[in-house]
Amino acid sequence: MIIKNAETILSVQNLVASIDDTQILKGFDITVKAGEIHAIMGPNGSGKSTFSKVLAGHPSYTVDNGTLEFKGQSLMDLEPNERAKLGIFLGFQYPVEVPGVTNGSFLRLAYNTVQGARGKDELDPLEFDDFIQSKLTLLGMDASFLERSLNEGFSGGEKKRNEILQMSILEPTLAILDETDSGLDIDALRVVANGVNTLHGENDAVVLVTHYQRLLNYIEPDFIHVVDGGRVIKTGDKSLAHELESRGYEWVLEENRSRAA
Amino acid sequence: MSTAIDNIVNQPYTAGFHTEIETDSVARGLSEDVIRTISSKKNEPEWLLEFRLKAYQHWLTMTEPKWPNVTYPKIDFQDIIYYSAPKSKVTKKSMDEVDPELLKTFEKLGIPMNERAALAGVAVDVVFDSVSVTTTYKEKLAEYGIIFCSFSEAVRDHPDLIKRYLGSVVPYTDNFYSALNSAVFTDGSFCYIPKGVKCPMDLSTYFRINTQDSGQFERTLIVAEEGSQVCYLEGCTAPQFDTNQLHAAVVELIALDDADIKYSTVQNWYAGDENGVGGIFNFVTKRGLCKGKNSKISWTQVETGSAVTWKYPSCILLGDNSVGEFYSVALTNHMQQADTGTKMFHIGKNTRSRIISKGISAGKSNNSYRGLVKVSPKAEGARNYSQCDSMLIGDLCGANTFPYIEVANKSAMVEHEASTSKIGEEQLFYFLSRGIDSEEAVSMIINGFVRDVFMHLPMEFAVEATKLLGLKLEGSVG
User: Fold this and answer.
1) Looking at residue B89, what is its pLDDT?
2) The domain A8-96+174-260: what is its CATH number?
3) Which of A17, B36, B334, B375 is the most exposed, fewest CB within 10 Å of its CB?
4) Could you give the C-alpha distances from B436 to A84, A119, A150, B41, in angstroms and in order?
5) Separation between Cα atoms, residue B437 and residue B426, nearest integer Å
């Protein structure tokens, strides 16, 4: 939803970032306000996943230039865990598997860490169990999920649901979901989309990073940004997604090239 | 590699201090004379001297094993001190007679030698260099008919038991280091649990090498009679020297019908510095004999120290329905090398064994699992399950798995699973992106990795081992 005079959650200007001395982001701009849902789309290798990792503070990337602000505060010198405590959440494209660490204890540690940072009470295992039940129901997950090792042996759909489950307990102000739709069948996609729609409200913002328009049939974005060559080359409303779906990316890229020439 | 991982795996060695204490040592080197000197210093009976001399003669014909996946400079066996004992050692009746320097040493290591200050219900035998300096709770255990004392006392007070069982599981001919140990062993622990007795407290031996250039060659012998049960713990530390010290122990366990022995080790010998200078060579032979039917021997080891480790706690499953278990965590860092694992010999019918091995390699270290599961022709219905997991921290370390399986009975079932994983930036980033700090993330990941093994450690030991691995339990402040 677009709200008048809403607070700016994320402000990114002229962001330049590289990995192993190769520049991936070359002047990335985006502004996200409370209540909004943004979709970042683009062909493979355009830099959209890199953007989500830089935003969350992945150590392999260095920021060479530009500004990256969350609610007016620069994120540049903050570690990934400090960013998470501020309320930034990255839903991973490929969640890692961690044998022996139960999903439940991981979720509780993450929850208590973020709660602690917000000055709220931590929950003991029993309280946490009660708390998480409703979240599990929302995502159509069984309580046995909590007993399993973190993401180990999870199907693609289970991993993505688990990401949204984490989002649901951490209640982020800004959620960036990186290719959350990839590898999901239609039922899982519906469950995940329903989860995101239920969790989203007027005080937080969601950024969807996706290659396909498909997800946007279930989560309706307010803005769509097309990324190529490490920058946003076109911004539009949701009708842009349909146009991309029917015409592909090439015409946008072409339009951009002729503008640059 | 991130500093968080470095900080966690590079905890300073807190047991590396040296105690200034007057010692009674024999001159460097090994000869029949040295063995005779050791034997006479200990007032040993003739049969034991003979045992030593036979072992020595046999040792002279042997060569060091070359098959382990480790490299180290050639050991000069004539440059080792084979006997070193704190002076004025007479058998201590009470703690008040023990040298205060020794008391202080073990206090610093967190080993209570004083029964009043002892850990709730753990009897401790304390071995300092070559001799046992004290054993706690002896009288209380005696009420149950349990014998728990230093090996030297056992030779004096229970010669029949020692004669009967010494070398019965690990003969001196077994290997190079068991022969050496049999020739020069100086002390150790002896434990005898009579028929039907469940040992009311955990028994424990704490080994400390103090003297530079001295070797430690101790023997542990545990006999569990029919239907008895015992839980035994072993801990070890050494000061930080820039020379290598040799630790070549022999441990023999005997479980008769329906007996149950659980043997846990937390090994924290000095590992050398980050360039591989100094540290203990830990070449140990540990073997248990499940002699009786329905008997059970379970080894749990947490190996964190030593420059070089060469160790295969094994089970001979002779009795029908007997059970052997091996749970191991081996952590190597810097230049450390470990070649460790187990051997399970299935001889009796319906014998079962279970092997869970977790290797963690960091720095430039090299960590190998080596295991043998052997099913003899008569071992009808034998079962084995093995799981060997390796975790790599950083890009410069190595992990290897050498599983040997020999099955000569077609009704046997042997399963082997292995995995290798890596704590990398991606795993850490995942935790960090959920607000968890990197130290807590690393401990949670390692803790999860070793969970299947640590759940088999006695409570106090599990806590100690967790600390040793530099782990903090979930929920503790990073």
Assistant:
1) 46
2) 3.40.50.300
3) B36
4) 9, 16, 15, 59
5) 14
Phi and psi at B91, nearest 5°, equal -60, 125
Which of A79, A80, A96 minimises the CB distance to B427? A96
Option in B429, B437, B474 nearest A105 (CB): B474
Which residues have C-beta within 8 Å of that of residue A86, sequence separation ≥ 6? A70, A71, A73, A75, A78, A117, A173
Which of B341, B424, B337 is CA-nearest to residue B386?
B341
Assembly ipTM? 0.95
Residue B318 CA to residue B376 CA, distance in Å, equals 10
How does pLDDT run across A40-86, given as a tens digit for each residue?
Answer: 999 889 999 999 999 999 999 999 999 999 999 999 999 999 999 99
Closest chain B C-alpha to A85 CA, distance in angstroms: 5
Nearest to A92 among B421, B430, B448 (CB): B430
Contact call for A112 and B475, based on CB within 8 A: yes
Residue B429 touches partner A, C-beta closer than 8 Å = yes
- The mean pLDDT value for A116-136 works out to 92
Average pLDDT over residues B287-302: 96
Beta strands in chain A (DSSP E): 8-19, 22-33, 37-41, 61-70, 73-74, 88-91, 98-102, 149-150, 174-178, 205-210, 223-228, 231-236
What are the structure tokens assigned to B424, written together?
A: 């990398």
| Beta carbons of A99 and B450 less than 8 Å apart | no
H-helix or E-strand containing B263? strand B260-267
Query: Taking CB atoms and an 8 Å limit, are B426 and A96 in contact across chains?
Result: yes
C-alpha to C-alpha distance for A157 and A192, rounded to whole angstroms: 9
The token pair at B11 is 């905890």
Report which residue type is found at B385: Y
The answer for A5, left when phi > 0, alpha when psi is -120 to 50, beta otherwise, is left
- The amino acid occupying position B298 is S
Asked if the C-beta of B438 comes within 8 angstroms of chain A's C-beta atoms, the answer is yes
Hey, is the C-beta of B417 within 8 angstroms of any chain A C-beta? no
